[in-house]
Amino acid sequence: MNGYYPIMLQLRGKRCVVVGGGSVAERKVAGLLEAGADSVTVVSPALTERLERLAAAGEIGYVRKRYAEPDINGAALVIAATDDPQVNGRVAADAGRAGIWVATADDAARGDFINPAVVRRGDLMIAVSAAGASPSLAVRIKRELEEKYGPEYAGYTRRLGELRKLALEKVADESRRRDVLRMAAEEEEPFKEAGESVERWLERLLKLTER
Ligand SMILES: C[C@@]1(CC(=O)O)c2cc3[nH]c(cc4nc(cc5[nH]c(cc(n2)[C@H]1CCC(=O)O)[C@@](C)(CC(=O)O)[C@@H]5CCC(=O)O)C(CC(=O)O)=C4CCC(=O)O)c(CCC(=O)O)c3CC(=O)O
Ligand SMILES: NC(=O)C1=CN([C@@H]2O[C@H](COP(=O)(O)OP(=O)(O)OC[C@H]3O[C@@H](n4cnc5c(N)ncnc54)[C@H](O)[C@@H]3O)[C@@H](O)[C@H]2O)C=CC1
């Protein structure tokens, strides 16, 4: 069994380098951009059409050549996604020596992290991993979760965030505040009340927690 520690990384302002420009690299780049990474550079002699477009639009940096060690200078995160296991191995070794977090698309054992399958609904993020045993299982479970947690959860999560901010300001009693916030996250029909202002929502929940 593989042990992994799940964390949510803030990538804003961090240099991310993807080595390789094929279909796997394209998926990894898309994931980095969705996560808000603002400094993504691809190193590869060739790019997919979509990566070409992203490079032309300035959304990603592009170094048109085969990988060499200096390409990962100053990186915080590196993903090796070429179709050449030897190149991926060199990237992993170079990054390892430089103390840079690295993942390899062809052999998880050589890297420091792996990418889970992800459902994003605004600030709500659900990540599924089988630690490399079966990417297809992670994808299947992601699809099931997409059905259960639809696009409406983006707005619901945003409102919960606003409610929590307001409660932190207005409800001094810690245990009552915790009750209110737990109830808000468990409301049976959270979307029925979507027209309700956050202030009214808080009032209603406070009434429900009155002894
Ligand atoms: C270890 C890991 C390392 C990493 O890449 O991070 C890894 C490794 C490998 N994947 C392989 C194959 C496939 N990968 C996918 C898809 C995804 N793979 C992803 C993650 C991971 N893949 C990490 C572990 C995830 C975990 O378990 O937690 C996802 C979830 C996220 C992402 O890539 O961002 C993304 C779905 C995105 C989405 O749809 O949401 C599909 C299905 C498809 O393409 O539809 C197939 C074919 C079917 C199959 O094999 O099941 C191969 C064999 C290659 C070969 O045959 O040569 C290896 C190499 C190996 O196993 O050593
Ligand atoms: N982790 C995952 O989710 C998956 C991983 N894989 C693995 O990922 C590998 C790559 O798959 P694809 O993207 O489909 O292959 P691909 O053939 O579409 O792309 C390979 C890319 O690597 C580039 N490349 C080759 N040598 C290079 C070098 N020396 N320096 C920089 N770039 C170089 C090529 O120009 C090309 O852009 C596969 O060989 C497989 O082992 C495959 C499927 C899923």
From TrEMBL:
Q: Name one Pfam family in it.
A: Sirohm_synth_M
What SUPFAM superfamilies does this protein's entry cite? Answer: NAD(P)-binding Rossmann-fold domains, Siroheme synthase middle domains-like
Siroheme synthase central domain location is: 121-147
EC numbers listed for it are 1.3.1.76
Reaction catalysed by this chain? Answer: precorrin-2 + NAD(+) = sirohydrochlorin + NADH + 2 H(+)
Going by the UniProt record, its keywords in alphabetical order are: NAD, Oxidoreductase, Porphyrin biosynthesis
Broad class of enzyme this protein falls into: oxidoreductase
**InterPro entries from the xrefs?**
Met8-like, NAD(P)-bd_dom_sf, SirC_C, Sirohaem_synthase_central, Sirohaem_synthase_N
Q: Give the highest taxon in the source lineage.
A: Bacteria
Name the pathway it acts in: Porphyrin-containing compound metabolism; siroheme biosynthesis; sirohydrochlorin from precorrin-2: step 1/1
- Protein name stated in the entry: precorrin-2 dehydrogenase
Q: Which organism is it from?
A: Paenibacillus thailandensis
